[in-house]
Amino acid sequence: MTPAANKNKWRIVNEALPQQKLLLELLVMSGDIAVADDSTGTILERTLNECLEHGWIETRMFGAGFHKISITSKGRDKTKPR
């Protein structure tokens, strides 16, 4: 792979996928949300983990069996038009 092709590949990986954008936009509009711990194996769990890996969201324990999901400034930047 040429360096130019590799650079384009990285740019694509760094862009938010549609489900990630939807989650980030929901957080911008509604503020923090609570997510149940029993979301194992769901698209929501996968999307949350992907956003966490990118640093777009953060999570905290919130009551028994729930996590509080908050958007970071890096995640908020992903929702702004380019």
What does it look like?
- This protein has about 80 residues and is an alpha+beta fold.
- It has a single domain (about 5-80), classed as Arc Repressor Mutant, subunit A.
- The chain contains 4 helices and 3 strands, in the order ααβαββα.
- Strands 1-3-2 form a 3-stranded antiparallel β-sheet.
- β2 (about 55-60) and β3 (about 65-70) form a beta hairpin.
- The longest helix is centred in the N-terminal third of the chain and has 13 residues, at about 20-30.
- The chain is globular, with a radius of gyration of 14 Å.
Name the overall outline. Answer: globular
- Would you identify the regions where 5 or more consecutive residues have pLDDT less than 50? none
Tally the helices: 4
Placed side by side, the strands forming the largest sheet appear as 1-3-2
Please give the radius of gyration in angstroms: 14 Å
What is the end-to-end distance? 28 Å
Query: What's the CATH topology label?
Result: Arc Repressor Mutant, subunit A
Record field, number of beta strands: 3
| CATH architecture call | Orthogonal Bundle
CATH class category name = Mainly Alpha
CATH superfamily: Winged helix-like DNA-binding domain superfamily/Winged helix DNA-binding domain
Order of helices and strands: HHEHEEH
Beta-strand content estimate: 15-25%
Number of domains: 1
On the 0-100 scale, what is the average pLDDT? 87
Binned, the helix content reads: 40-55%
